[in-house]
Amino acid sequence: MGVDIPQPFHSVLDGPVTISGIPNAFDITVASLPTIHLAVDSPLPEIHLSIDKLPKVQLGVDPVEIRLTELPSIRGHLPADFCIGLSVLGLELMSMRLCGEAQIITEPYAPNPCEGCGQTPGKTRPTHHA
Fold this sequence. Notes:
This protein is mainly beta. It contains no helices and two strands.
């Protein structure tokens, strides 16, 4: 028995195609969960951890001797901000603030051009014109 389908197959739809009758909201619920039991049938073996003897570890390090024979020649610059004042009951009456730069000099001192306070014999200080 056979069915003959005409080729090419033509079909005509009369009216709009609708999806009425198909629900648009779906609810999925779980009413209950079964109880799950986990058990070990045989007893668990006993595990003992112990350290009876610790081996001695010796490090072969010779004594180290460090000596400071000479201070390195440096000029260390430190910011300085000092405030000297008088206050009564937390109210500042007067104060004087000194700020600038302090130096730690371990090299043989030779003043920089901006550090000279007076004239060196035989040399004149540069004059700056404003």
